[in-house]
């Protein structure tokens, strides 16, 4: 099949749409939707968010040196989208959306959102202007998982978090589990056992 050649764009897809929260001294907590978020290092753990300089949150993050990435389940979709189309300059978006700010360990100002399945609290390591967006790289200094998603066995049950995906302007919910890391080379008995477990996590 031939390709239709298009002008270049950064169309990585799907991406995780996240709610990035921030605050500062005498600045109330705010949140914005971010589609351009990424994992950039494992040890030490680091994530990135790309934010346009014009966003109200941009200077708060730059000046406070911290931000929290809140993963979003489908029950947060309405709030996430709202926080992505309205500015904290004009209103208290988190309050308006009925989101609950809670302390994120290691953060001086930025809260986590209690409704989020999992948060990553980040200290800004660097800010790199790229053009339309500034790339913030954050070192993850703490991570919290919502209590109901923490199994007795010590597993983070993200399969129960109804996480959202974002693809080319549309929100989706994740579908069924199809495989696991390394499945293509797994021993047959391991493959069968793991796949049985995985299929058990699929919602009907
Ligand atoms: C799904 C979605 C993804 C978005 N991704 C980004 C992003 O990666 N970077 C960015 O600067 N703005 C992004 N935006 C836009 C901001 O969230 C939006 O401009 C927001 O109103 C900024 O809020 P603030 O002015 O309170 O900071 C996104 C919006 C939506 C709805």
Which outline best applies? globular
- Helix count? 4
- Considering the protein shown, what is the CATH homologous superfamily of the domain at 18-151 and 161-165? Electron Transport, Fmn-binding Protein, Chain A
Largest sheet: 7 strands, antiparallel
Determine and state the CATH class of the domain at 18-151 and 161-165: Mainly Beta
The radius of gyration computed from the alpha-carbon positions, rounded to a whole number of angstroms, is 18 Å
Poorly predicted runs of 5 or more residues: none
* The CATH architecture of the domain at 18-151 and 161-165: Roll
Order of helices and strands: EEEEHEHHEEEEEEH
Oligomer: single chain
Structural class comes to alpha+beta
- CATH topology category name of the domain at 18-151 and 161-165: Pnp Oxidase, Chain A
The portion of residues forming beta strands comes to 25-35%
Q: Give the mean pLDDT.
A: 97
Bound molecules: flavin mononucleotide
Task: Tell me the helix content.
Answer: 10-25%
Instruction: Give the tally of β-strands.
Output: 11
How are strands sequenced across the largest beta sheet? Answer: 2-1-5-8-9-4-3
Distance between the termini: 35 Å
């Amino acid at each position: 099949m031939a390709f239709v050649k298009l002008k270049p764009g950064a169309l990585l897809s799907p991406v995780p749409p996240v709610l990035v929260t921030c605050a500062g001294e005498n600045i109330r907590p705010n949140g914005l939707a971010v589609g351009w978020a990424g994992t950039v290092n494992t040890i030490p753990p680091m994530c990135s968010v790309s934010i346009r300089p014009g966003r109200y949150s941009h200077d708060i993050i730059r000046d406070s040196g911290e931000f929290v990435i809140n993963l979003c389940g489908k029950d947060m979709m309405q709030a996430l989208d709202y926080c992505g189309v309205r500015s904290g300059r004009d209103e208290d978006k988190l309050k308006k959306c009925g989101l609950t700010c809670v302390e994120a360990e290691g953060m001086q100002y930025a809260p986590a959102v209690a409704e989020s399945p999992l948060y990553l609290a980040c200290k800004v390591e660097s800010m790199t202007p790229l053009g339309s967006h500034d790339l913030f790289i954050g070192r993850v200094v703490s991570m919290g998982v919502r209590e109901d998603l923490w199994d007795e066995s010590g597993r983070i049950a993200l399969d129960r978090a109804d996480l959202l995906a974002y693809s080319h302007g549309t929100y989706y919910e994740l579908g069924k589990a199809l495989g696991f890391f390394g499945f293509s080379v797994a021993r047959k008995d391991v493959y069968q056992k793991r796949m049985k477990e995985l299929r058990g996590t699929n919602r009907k």
